[in-house]
Amino acid sequence: MDTVIVAGGPSLVRAALTKVIDASDTLRVTGTAADRDGLRDLLDARAPADVVLLDRSVRTGEAADFTGLIGEICAVTRTVVFGAPSAQEVDAQVRAGATGVLAADVSASQLVSALETVSRGGLVVALGTVPAVNTAPARVTPGLTRELSVREREILTMLATGQDSASIARDLGLSPLTVKTHITRMLGKLGIRRRGHLVAFAYESGLIAPGMTHTSFIANRLRAAS
């Protein structure tokens, strides 16, 4: 059974989330925390946690330090952000290391399913009924990756494994502008609006698997060419 720590948000919300999670057959809550300090105490005490469910309203001391907290948690375990107020924050949260981003209006079954997926190493972006959000093409299939050139697939793999445009440009010997141009073309080809959603596409389409690196992508490409 996978273990979850619930952190942040009003006490009533934490209690409700805990009840939903504990009612599942696959998950159980091993601790709750009201704020950053309480969460740190749990993690320092090595409370069992395959996933931390982190409410977007968690008190961090500094409003702008939320992504920093995500990075801190991800150094220890997987993180799912709950209550994303808009699609604008998805990119920053995924880049900080979150492997799940959920709107506050997801259903109980969606919440449990997302936690199960993330605990297995997957990535979930579920923005519920937030208006004007296009998280991915309507049908994400492996065939869609054929729309991308080899270079675009390579750049997408690097994005999905945590690299930014500058490091991709450096590693591939390209200019940052060229990398940004490739990313813009991918967004157009796939009908995706935001860079953060490209990461979700990379996982959902099967282009990469959890734990895959840019090096393993190159190795697979060489094997396919031989």
Can you describe what's shown?
The chain is α/β, with parallel strands linked by helices and 226 residues long. The protein folds into 2 domains: 2-126, Rossmann fold, CATH 3.40.50; 142-225, Orthogonal Bundle (Arc Repressor Mutant, subunit A), CATH 1.10.10.10. The chain has 10 helices and 6 strands, in the order E-H-E-H-E-H-E-H-E-H-E-H-H-H-H-H. It has helices spanning 11-22, 36-44, 66-74, 90-96, 108-119, 150-160, 165-172, 176-190, 195-204, 214-225, and strands spanning 2-7, 27-33, 51-55, 78-82, 100-102, 124-126. Helix 5 links the parallel strand 5 and strand 6 (124-126). Mean pLDDT is 78; it is low at 129-141 and 210-226.
Label this structure with key terms.
single chain, 226 residues, alpha/beta, Rossmann fold, Arc Repressor Mutant, subunit A, 2 domains, 6 strands, 13% strand, elongated, disordered C terminus
Give the overall form. Answer: elongated
Order of helices and strands: EHEHEHEHEHEHHHHH
Radius of gyration, whole Å: 18 Å
The helix content is 40-55%
Q: What is the number of domains?
A: 2
Tell me the name of the CATH homologous superfamily of the largest domain: Response regulator
**Class from helix and strand fractions:** alpha/beta
Predict the CATH topology of the largest domain. Answer: Rossmann fold
Mean pLDDT: 78
Sheet with the most strands: spatial strand order: 2-1-3-4-5-6
Identify low-pLDDT runs: 129-141, 210-226
Care to count the β-strands? 6
Question: Which CATH architecture of the largest domain would you pick?
Answer: 3-Layer(aba) Sandwich
Largest sheet: 6 strands, parallel
Distance between the termini: 42 Å
CATH class of the largest domain: Alpha Beta
| Helix count, DSSP H or I runs of 4 or more residues | 10
Strand content: 5-15%
